[in-house]
């Protein structure tokens, strides 16, 4: 097989603009350039950032090819790609974690500011440096991680963004200490990743907070010791956390909802002077309000992208743990659709029993 091949016509999920229908269209995918690979997608999944992208975050450029979580098989490679070959199985996501040489691209284009996708002659944008809800897509080789081909496809898709972001936030970004206390706001895939990350770091108490009562059981499967549903009390979530910790608050909190008003709550839930809050999730609003006194009391607020994980040295460890079934990732897999039924997926994510929707591409 030659290192590069011809233009491929295939199907992909396209968003045409804010508030406009999402459609499955025939598109053209160019061959990879010198440092790129073209991937035949096998399985993808839905992350909240995909939904935010249809609402104009992070760049608001359309038409937009959706998806940034997924696993596939390399179809062809550019002539300067040395570490990957046709047939390798890969997780696809923005994995270089703030590398200045290979930064995460939020422009909707490739690192050279061009696109490998088009529809009826019009350029197609994508969320980051890939578009996984397409039968084929092109990515720079630096954003590709080779994994064991026997890995569960759905689980590989989960670790390519959301779950690993939460896990890495507890492991790498916060470096949760053994015996410490933790609060996780929002028990979706990201929050559950933070829960088990804190558990494996040796946290003595992990409090899960979610308004969806169905998340209690999911949280327990990943390692929460306590569950708070703020809707069950007149007190705020931070006050409820303090009630469980003798009025002190926790050592670490993780904001995994993307709801702006929860940010101050997650800060207030930590100990004065030493508490640390990691902001993980994002909403469509670029500005988040923060309570001034929550910061003035000596707490630390830190953001993270992909949980502080690096592609080869860190994500490969997550993939190995996934392969060894050290994570109960089957608890995330609640629904499955085909690419043709992608609009059904957007309805499924609104259901209270939904955690992750898998898109079967094969």
Automatic annotation (TrEMBL):
Q: Which Pfam families match?
A: ADH_N, ADH_zinc_N
List UniProt keywords, sorted A-Z: Metal-binding, NAD, Oxidoreductase, Zinc
This chain belongs to which protein, by name?
A: Enoyl reductase (ER) domain-containing protein
Q: Which GO terms describe its biological process?
A: formaldehyde catabolic process
| Organism phylogeny | Eukaryota, Viridiplantae, Streptophyta, Embryophyta, Tracheophyta
Alcohol dehydrogenase-like C-terminal domain boundaries: 189-310
Instruction: Name the GO cellular-component terms.
Output: cytosol
Output the PANTHER family linked to this UniProt entry. ALCOHOL DEHYDROGENASE, ALCOHOL DEHYDROGENASE-RELATED
**Mind listing the GO molecular function terms for this protein?**
alcohol dehydrogenase (NAD+) activity; S-(hydroxymethyl)glutathione dehydrogenase [NAD(P)+] activity; zinc ion binding
Q: Where's the Alcohol dehydrogenase-like N-terminal domain?
A: 34-147
């Amino acid at each position: 097989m030659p290192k590069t091949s011809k233009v491929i016509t295939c199907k992909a999920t396209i968003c045409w603009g804010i508030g406009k229908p999402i459609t499955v269209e025939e598109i053209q995918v160019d061959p990879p350039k010198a440092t790129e690979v073209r991937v035949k997608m096998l399985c993808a999944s839905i992350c909240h950032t995909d939904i935010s992208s249809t609402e104009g975050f992070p760049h608001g450029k359309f038409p937009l090819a959706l998806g940034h979580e997924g696993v596939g098989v390399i179809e062809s490679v550019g002539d300067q790609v040395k570490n990957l070959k046709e047939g390798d199985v890969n997780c696809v996501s923005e994995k270089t974690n703030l590398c200045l040489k290979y930064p995460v691209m939020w422009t909707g284009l490739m690192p050279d500011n061009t696109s490998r996708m088009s529809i009826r002659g019009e350029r197609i944008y994508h969320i980051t440096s890939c578009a996984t809800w397409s039968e084929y897509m092109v990515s720079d080789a630096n954003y590709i991680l080779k994994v064991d081909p026997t890995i569960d496809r759905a689980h590989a898709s989960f670790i390519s963004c959301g779950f690993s972001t939460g896990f890495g936030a507890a492991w790498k970004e916060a470096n949760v200490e053994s015996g410490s206390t933790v609060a996780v706001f929002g028990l979706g895939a990201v929050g559950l990743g933070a829960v088990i990350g804190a558990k494996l770091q040796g946290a003595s108490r992990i409090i899960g907070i979610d308004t969806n009562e169905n998340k209690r059981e999911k949280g327990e499967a990943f390692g929460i010791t306590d569950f708070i549903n703020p809707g069950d009390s007149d007190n705020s979530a931070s006050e409820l956390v303090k009630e469980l910790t003798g009025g002190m608050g926790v050592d670490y909190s993780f904001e995994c909802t993307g709801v702006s008003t929860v940010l101050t709550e997650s800060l207030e839930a930590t100990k004065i002077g030493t508490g640390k809050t990691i902001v993980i999730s994002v909403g469509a609003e670029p500005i988040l309000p923060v309570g001034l006194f929550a910061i003035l009391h000596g707490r630390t607020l830190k953001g993270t992208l992909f949980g502080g994980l690096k592609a080869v040295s860190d994500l490969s460890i997550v993939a190995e743990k996934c392969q060894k079934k050290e994570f109960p990732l089957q608890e995330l897999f609640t629904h499955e659709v085909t690419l043709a039924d992608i609009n059904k997926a957007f309805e499924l994510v609104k259901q209270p029993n939904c955690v992750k929707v898998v898109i079967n591409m094969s």
